[in-house]
Every structure is written in C-alpha cells, then in structure tokens.
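haha ok so turns out i had the wrong file open the whole time. this is the CORRECT one, sorry everyone. sequence first:
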Amino acid sequence: NSMEARLPAPHCHELAAAVDTVAAEAGAPARVRIFHANGPTDAWSWIAPPTAPPTRIAKCRVTILPLDVGDQSTQLAMRFEPDDALDAFELIPDGFGHSEGIVFRTRDLADAIQTPPLRRFLSDVFSIPHVFHWFWTSPASQHHHHAYRGGLADHSVEVAENVLNAPSLAAMERELGVVFALIHDLGKLWCYEETGRHLLAMGHELVALDRLHEPLEALAREWPDGAVALRALLAGVWKQRGKPILAVGKLVQAYDQASAERDLARQPKHRH
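then structure:
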C-alpha cells in the first residue's frame, strides 16, 4: 500500500565549529561558512546565524542536515548553539596552513601546554579573527626572513618547537617560552594590512600587546603572574625582570635570530 510507505529519515550531524556569515538578506536564507577540523564548508540557514564581538570568532555547535537538490548537494544549518568554551585549535581546519602539516604542529605545541590558564589563553588568542584566519598565510617579514606566504606560521612554530625541546628550562619557563614564541610576531598580522601600515611606527610587539589585551586580561584573572610575564615579554622589558623571564626572553630571542638566519641562508636571492 503506497500510503504505508515510509520516507527515509533525514540524517543530521553536529559539528563544533567557528561560523562566519557570508551573506544574509531579509526574507532569504543566510549563507554561512562553517570552519571545523575537517575543513571549511558552506551551508544555508533559515535561522539567524550566531554573532560575536569583532574581537572573537563565533564558536558554536552546529546541527547540519545534508540535502540533495537535483543533481547538486548542499547543507542546511538547522541549529546553532553558542559555546565560547570550545577550543580554537579543534576548529582550525587541517588544511588552513600554507605549509604542509603546520596546523598539526601548532596543535601539538598547544597540547604541550599543561597549565590550564595558559592553555586557555592560547585558545583565546587563536579565537581572535585575525589570528584564526591569517596566522597561517601571513609572511613573517616584508623584506627580510620568511618573507613569503605562510612564513609567519613557519617561523613562529619553528621557534616554539626549539623552545619546547630546549634542555635548559624548568617546566613553567618552557611553557611560557612556547607561548611567547607562538605569539611574539602576531602584531604583524595588523601591521601588514593595507589599513594598518601606520602601526609599523609603533612596532609589531606593542601592536600585539594592544590586540591581545582581552586574552591577557582573562589570563590575569586566573594567573596574574603569568599575564605579567607575557606582557613583559611582549613589551620587550624582559631584560629588566630577571629570572625566569630573563631566561625565557633570551632563549626565544636566540631561536628567533637563528630561525631568521637559516631562512636567509636557504633563500639568499629570493624575491620579496
């Protein structure tokens, strides 16, 4: 009996994701881009996409319904459940990096941070839209070392890995050093924008200190000494602080210079 035939039930699945609204018009479904570990994907939604402050990506759990429309496949976002506690490193697509494996290496460095407030700080930093999206494709300099697409991530991760494997640091010094190595050049993300060239006069270190204010404030509420240490390192006043900040600053400075010199030796004539 055709009236007793059952339609196949739709199969939904849930993703932990960062969501960007691509297009939204009154009376029409919104088009959203969903970022998760397996890669970015586009979807349509009849419900309002999540919003976040300009300084944060919109993190949420998204319920997705795959649809076949004619000979094409698409996806419908059925539900958004905001969840700002999601770890940013679980949402960064594996293929975001310009260099092969760089996202996995960055996740390994983040997982090496065993101090919970410091680990949350690092997730907060990579939840900043500029860092989440552009850390992976920005150059590390405009006319010097790692001056190519993806150079910032290559350089920062190389320095952080060297700090992680350095034999001379205590556990807490090592973790602060890894975090500082990952964030020490982040100010360049804003300095290298067309609208940010005026920031170069301030220096990328102080730009990073300014742009990371919210994550540093959150860290200060949980671990004041850690926030002071990172602020001192970013501001370049670590030479005045003594141990352990002096040890961390000197080591990151040494590995930073070595990384730059290796890149210049590999590509002495490459065009910038």
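Residues 122 and 179 are 7 Å apart (CA to CA).
again sry for the mixup
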